[in-house]
Amino acid sequence: xxxxxxxxxxxxxxDKNNKIPKENLEAIDKIHEKNIPFAICxxxxxxxxxxxxxxxxxxxxxxxxxxxxxxxxxxKELLRNTLSKEDLLYITTLVERFDxxxxxxxxxxxISEKLKYMDLRNFILKSKxxxxxxxxxxxxxxxxxxxxxxxxxxxxxxxxxxxxxxxxQFINVNNNIMYQFINKRGKYKDIIIEKEYEYINISPTHIxxxxxxxxxxxxxxxxxxxxLAIGDNVNDLNMVKNSGIxxxxxxxxxxLKQVANYVTTKTTAEGAFSxxxxxxxx
Length: 282
Hints:
Layout: E1 4-8, H1 22-33, E2 38-41, H2 46-56, E3 60-63, E4 68-71, E5 76-80, H3 85-98, E6 101-105, E7 109-112, H4 118-127, E8 135-138, H5 142-148, E9 155-160, H6 165-171, E10 177-184, E11 197-204, H7 209-220, E12 227-231, H8 237-242, E13 245-248, H9 254-259, E14 262-263, H10 272-280
Parallel strand pairs: 1-2, 1-12, 2-3, 7-8, 12-13, 13-14
Antiparallel strand pairs: 3-4, 4-5, 6-7, 6-9, 9-11, 10-11
Helix pairs in contact: 1-10, 3-5, 3-6
């Protein structure tokens, strides 16, 4: 029996054109009717996701890939992990050395020297949805800004149109942080900003969606085998791989499809999330 459903949002429930198929909304209603705890798992902050939370009415929210977990049923924050100033300055030193782009996420701000990649993507999405409670702060020098201010930073994102391989070798030796590499080239191109690039999402160590699902299974006193996890991106990989039933949507990254128990026949726009729910929730 499934006792927790954990799902990615963008590319899984919401399609690449930022639309929610009605079948997916109906599937969420079915989850609520069955009284199964439902956790949305997103790389975005709560400020960006607040409107979606109101629409989906999830039991739990996993934000920033696990830097923050909220229990909506009991209206309380269960977990909050932020990057230290020391680690942030380590990151900015490398960003300057390799001439890369950096933006950071606080509770309700994206801070950057220039909107360019994922930060530009979020700016465009906010311009289309004024209910998103997110501000954009452009600073002259992000290293100086971090040095002079006490910030609660959930994650840092380093982006480039060129290879991030060299940068990755230096980040890899810092035991206080963990990172996820994402490729936005070729068939994974970012169609919101019409650009190909790659980025590395950096968070405190032991923070990812899978660890967050582990946290919730302990919180709910259930087994990992009783979790249905659904996703589309490589930051969903461990969550999908290690859950009782792991589902990849049809247009998911190939790496995710290889570890999933089931790959939907439908695309996200066609209601892939609904397909997964109707197949495994009777």
